[in-house]
Amino acid sequence: MANHQEVDGVFVALADPTRRRVIRRLGHGPTSVGDLAAEFPITLPSFMKHVRTLESNGLIRTVKVGRVRTCVLNRERLAVVDDWLAEQRRIWEQRTDRLERLVTDEEDV
């Protein structure tokens, strides 16, 4: 189970549509920063801020070979979101099950 800071960081990183598009694009495979940036109508420095946010929250890794920096999706990090959602789903299912039992038990009386 991820701690709250990890969850917060991942959700902050995923809150921006540009960063979600980068994640989606990297789902198809590693891509250079230059190729990724060409897909967005923003300046390279602005795009690099998004890359740094994704990297600092562990959602991507970058590797520099020569002058080319390549971004790679860290799929394991997305499990933080899956784990959090699964925990919330379990909590709410338990609550609705209790509510259903309360309502059906009173109807039987």
Automatic annotation (TrEMBL):
The HTH arsR-type domain is annotated at 1-93
One MF term in the entry's GO annotations = DNA-binding transcription factor activity
PROSITE patterns per record: HTH_ARSR_2
One Pfam family per UniProt: HTH_20
Name the domain of life: Bacteria
Classification via NCBIfam families: HTH_metalloreg (NF033788)
Name of the featured protein: ArsR family transcriptional regulator
Q: Which organism is it from?
A: Kribbella jejuensis
